[in-house]
Amino acid sequence: MSRQPIWTGVYPAVTTKFTAEGALDIPAFMHNIRAQVEAGAQGIIIGGSLGESSTITHEERLILLAAVLDEYGEQVDVILNVAEGSTARAIELTQKAEAAGAHGIMLLPPMMYKPTDDEVAQFFLDVARATQLSILVYNNPVDYKIEITLDIFEQLAHTPNIAAVKESTRLTSNVIRMRNRFGDRFKILCGVDTIALEELALGADGWVAGLVCAFPKETVALYRYVKAGRYAEARALYQWFMPLLELDVSPQLVQNIKLAEAFTGLGNENVRPPRRPLQGAERERVIAIIEAALQQRPGIGEL
To answer: What is the rounded distance in angstroms from the CA atom of residue 51 to the CA atom of residue 55?
Structure first.
């Protein structure tokens, strides 16, 4: 059995780096991963929505997975995102990830089809029973129009390797609802940057973060401040961070965050079609947010 994720701490949902021609840029990708690890990230999530999941192949995901495992597999939890339209394809990718040495997967509900609650539950159960990997269930009804309800989680609770939830319903009270219903059965990770302080203060175990790709030290510091009860420092950092964090709750989150990475020296703006880099007035708006934040960037003290 490989390393088991603890599902506690900061898990960057990293961007996928491309060359200007659209090929994987492994050196640029690993440059960013190094910054995440050095800042204190607990794990790395590869090929998620922010990683342009819809435009990278299974083979490319496994190439990215191998690169991170090779250099940092003993230091952090290395997680592969699985977002498929069929149970068979989800199982296929999960088993390939397991064979390649992944420590866990983040699993979305079936894509491109609006399933019933029973179909959603069965999908997760079928994938879980086909692997020994630990599974982070991604609950994001805002973007994917499928809610993993408390009743669905009830059906999943007896399957041990369904271990955690990326809580992206936008309802901070869902942290409490999960605790009231299931106690500590599931680890809960906030999946929305703009409510991270609130959900962590309510007892979420971790944070699947987006702006961490450009600001790893600040993201880890915010998590640690909250968990240490250093709320005055957490609030001050969160206030500075919020204009940046709002770039995560946008259909153009990939372009926004890649632009921020370019400004902090941790990436470039290259995306795969149909995405295009930000242009015109919107690009100038986002640059103004990034530049203002960099001018006021706080120093991070002892954590």
So the answer is: 9
